[in-house]
Specification:
The complex is a heterodimer of chains A (165) and B (322). Chain A has 165 residues and is of the alpha+beta class. Chain A is 31% helix and 40% strand. Chain A has two domains: 77 residues, ACT domain (Alpha-Beta Plaits, 2-Layer Sandwich); 77 residues, Alpha-Beta Plaits. In chain A, the strands form two sheets. In chain A, strands 2-3-1-4 form a four-stranded antiparallel beta sheet, with helices on one face. In chain A, helix 1 runs antiparallel to helix 2. In chain B, the strands form two sheets. Chain B has a six-stranded mixed beta sheet with strand order 3-2-1-4-5-6, with helices on both faces. Chain B has a six-stranded mixed beta sheet with strand order 8-10-9-7-11-12. In chain B, strand 9 and strand 10 form a beta hairpin. In chain B, helix 1 crosses helix 13 and helix 4 packs parallel to helix 5. The radius of gyration of chain B is 20 Å and the shape is globular. Chain B starts with a strand and ends with a helix. Chains A and B meet through strand 5, strand 7 and strand 8 of A and helix 12, strand 9 and strand 10 of B. Strand 8 of chain A pairs parallel with strand 10 of chain B, so a sheet runs across the interface.
Chain lengths: 165, 322
């Protein structure tokens, strides 16, 4: 199943440059969704950042990325995360193996993208705001379910947001 | 002439009696003449010819004069409407009075949250006897939510309900948010002020809110039971939690939520500019519908006259067409 990807490349400001990027995407079955020239953000070497969004099979997207790296400067490449949620965690977050917690939350379809923790005195519960991004609402719901389970197991309280849709 | 029996003569019962006496003219203009034919509670009863002020006076001085039990009144007096305002208890005493009244063909208006365990049964019984069971006062005090859901939103699909249904918790969380104080300190102060009870468990563990959520859920057609509610209280929330939440534009509130996939009472992150970030002892309910969009109600969730006003709104509902 194809997923949405975004990449930012730096191109010299002369004719024919964009083609170098589009050709590998097309050849690998990628479908361009959008192209934005960031002319206002020219680099010191006078290159223009160009943001390109496309859908493609994840494996082919990897190949596109590899091929592009040989041709141009790729500044960023990644999946577009469409669903995001911020959660507040209260408890012994650090001492219950934080990296284990995050590793178990992360998956191919969702990941923890931000963590902001505060630790009061020793042995006191700490607090963290965790942001999780996923490629769809359903993927996010599945990630959220994992968070609930992991935190229940580790005695961490999860405060979820109220969705006001 | 509407004949009323008041069962339970504590704070709410006396509040109802006071309002009935004070607003008699306005009430009778709208629903016709009425008479309170009996009041009863654990201290005794009063029947026959008496003024409401006398009953209140007796009660204040220690107890109602006649040695009749509330059940005797429920079973034997001649009344059209029972106003059942005994306190919510697990022994289902109040439900027993209501059943007697409904079986005898009298309508019932109640503030008793213990109907949560038997709401569907009681409503069926009322329907079978061609009378009504009205319970506006059980959820959200003065906030008109039950009739709003039942009548005005009758042809809306209710997609979700999200509410603040416990004023004590909301008060505690508001003060933690505003003053950065720890939970225990705010709780003690709330207890001193009479906002929290000496034993705060039912409030702070979300039990009270869960009972109300069950009543709301049943009202919109989900046959939910108390055990179905996923419940988490506010006792573990720290002042740091508010600080961290605040950096992202959130505060924390105890939210009761009912939807097809969720029935829970738990602390939740609420955007600071959200209507649900309501402060102090207020209650609130956000109703999400298919055709009417979102509807929001807020108001005082408890109090003698607030609860009594909800009882009177049911009395109006019962007799407005007669």
């Amino acid at each position: 199943m194809s997923e949405l990807f975004t990449l930012v490349v730096e191109l010299e400001d002369k004719p024919g440059q964009l083609l170098k990027v589009l050709e590998p995407i097309a050849r690998n079955g990628g479908n361009i969704v959008g192209i934005v020239h960031q002319r206002g953000k020219k680099t010191p070497l006078s290159r223009v950042p160009v943001e390109i969004s496309f859908t493609a099979d994840p494996k082919k997207a990897e190949r596109i990325f590899e091929e592009l790296q040989k041709e141009v400067v790729v500044r960023a490449f990644g999946k577009i995360r469409t669903a995001t949620v911020s959660l507040l965690l209260i408890g012994h977050i650090i001492h219950t193996d934080l990296s284990d917690t995050i590793r178990r939350i992360d998956s191919s379809e969702a990941e923890c993208v931000e963590l902001n923790a505060t630790m009061p005195e020793i042995n006191q519960p700490s607090t963290a705001m965790m942001t999780i991004s996923a490629k769809s609402d359903e993927a996010l719901e599945r990630a959220l379910e994992r968070v609930r389970e992991i935190c229940k197991e580790k005695g961490i309280m999860v405060i979820e947001p109220v969705n006001e849709i | 002439m509407i004949k009323i029996a008041i069962i339970g003569f504590g704070t709410v019962g006396q509040g109802v009696a006071e309002l009935l006496a004070r607003k008699r003219d306005e009430i009778e203009k709208k629903i016709g003449r009425f008479k309170v034919v009996a009041v009863a509670d654990l201290t005794g009863a009063m029947t026959g010819e008496f003024r409401l002020e006398e009953a209140i006076e007796h009660r204040r001085k220690g107890g109602l004069p006649e040695k009749k039990s509330a059940m005797e009144i429920a079973e034997n007096e001649d009344y059209d409407v029972m106003i059942e305002v005994t306190t919510t208890r697990l022994d289902e005493e109040g439900i027993a009075y209501m059943k007697v009244a409904l079986e005898r063909g009298a309508s019932v208006i109640t503030s008793n949250k213990s109907i949560a365990v038997a709401l569907m049964d009681l409503l069926r019984l009322a329907k079978r006897k061609n009378v009504k069971l009205l319970y506006e006062a059980t959820v959200g005090g003065a906030m008109p939510v039950i009739k709003l859901l039942n009548s005005y939103l009758a042809f809306c699909e209710i997609r979700s309900l999200k509410g603040i249904l416990n004023g004590t918790c909301n008060y505690i969380l508001t003060r933690m948010e505003e003053e950065g104080l720890p939970y225990n300190q705010v709780l003690s102060e709330a207890q001193e002020m009479g906002i929290a009870e000496a034993n705060p468990t039912a409030d702070v563990e979300g039990i009270d809110a869960a009972i109300k959520l069950v009543i709301l859920a049943n009202t919109i057609g989900y046959p939910a039971k108390f055990e179905d509610v996923k419940r988490e209280g506010i006792t573990k929330i720290t002042p740091q939690a508010f600080k961290v939440a605040m950096q992202k534009g959130y505060t924390i509130r105890l939210i009761a939520e009912a939807s097809k996939k969720s029935l829970r009472v738990s602390p939740r992150l609420v955007k600071l500019n959200s209507l649900l970030a309501i402060k102090g002892t207020l209650n609130a309910l956000m109703i999400q519908t298919d055709t009417a969009g979102e509807i929001f109600v807020a108001g005082r969730g408890a109090g003698k006259y607030e609860t009594a006003s909800a009882i009177l709104s049911d009395l109006y509902e019962l007799h407005r067409d007669r």
